[in-house]
Design brief:
This protein has about 425 residues and is of the alpha/beta class. Helix content is about 35%, strand content about 15%. The protein has two domains: about 140 residues, Rossmann fold, CATH 3.40.50; about 200 residues, Dihydrodipicolinate Reductase, domain 2. It has 14 helices and 15 strands.
Amino acid sequence: MNKERVKDNFASRRNFIKSAGILTAFTIIPRHVLGGVGYLAPSDQVSLGFIGVGRQGVGLKNSFIGLEKARIVAASDVYGRKLKSFAEQANEYYAKKNNTNVQKSCQEYLDFREILERKDIDAVVIALPDHWHAAAAVRAAAAGKDIYCEKPLSLSIAEGRAMVEAARKYNRVFQTGSMQRSWAEFRQTANIMRNGLLGDIKSIKVSVGAPPVPYDLPKQDVPADLDWNRWLGPNEYVHYNSRIAPNFNEQPAWADWRLYKGIGGGMVTDWGAHMFDIVQWGLAMDMSGPVAFNPPSTDNKYLNFTYANGIQVSHENFGISNAIQIIGSKGKLEVQRGKLVTDPVSLKDYKFGESDKQVYFSQNHYQDFLDAVQTRGNTVAPVETGHRTATVCNLANIAYELGRPLKWNPEKEKFIDDKEANKLIGRQLKKEWKV
């Protein structure tokens, strides 16, 4: 290339850059000009990787996939047929939406750490069994991913605190899957409580199921496409049973891992993470928690716990499953999914104004997360909130296990003068997965 041509090329490039600078300074180019009808710039979407694609993972897929800001690009699971089915569903959705035959929008991975290594993935959705939450979330935060993690946030108090610290250290947006906070009946309940419309609270009853039991299911052969050792992950080995990790076609019901110690926390954490969570929200205890726990005894039929202000909560079936009953000096309410009953009736649809206390407003739990990822803002159920609610549930299970009254310091997150109880704050994880 001669010198004149080099000079001409340089001048042409300089003029192009100058012209482009003028254009961008004064002109906003319409999106459809840049990429055609329906084009979305990369900054307009959040690339999601799903970690765990069982029944809950599929449900979360259905919640995220239709949102314009979301794009599911990867999925991981140790059960082959579940992973394949999930990816096929996602790919079929995008192929149909984009009117294309491209079938590989969602890539499949056995090891979720491969998802964390991808620089093009903005956030992960963790829908693993509870014993995996901390190990996955801490590593996701360190990899620079924002995190949506299912409830209950952790299987132990120490693991929950590790998740909080990791999210803060790496400045990650975090949404706990406590989606009831984005539902109108529970938001109304929290606002009623915050504004004292029931008067002085006399009793709070939370009706959820039992604490976990020891794993006692019979041994069965492991399916050929399930990596059982990977499923156990941080936990020591226990034998396989299909009720723990069912095939969708054989058992469409929820997996029973949540019922057994060391894997789940029983219904106390499974449903308690929803219902105790609303109590925490309404009492403005998202940064704290109860100070005393009393298991069933000759003096009290039901486990109860008490806050520093004297308000007591009872783990008690009052006739409605998975619900909350609150009785105050001026009224009463009962709330469950899809139904809020108040006395006086006017409280049900009471309109709160600017002068009233009002909790964080979210109508869509998943959109709320995506918005926060893009704005670097807060979420309706951030990591500390999820941790504090899971702590209430885990504390209740410890009280059930020890069978005696316990005093808790929510600031230090330690039991008071109880070495045996303090040993149960954490649990032993395999070296590879320590947090």
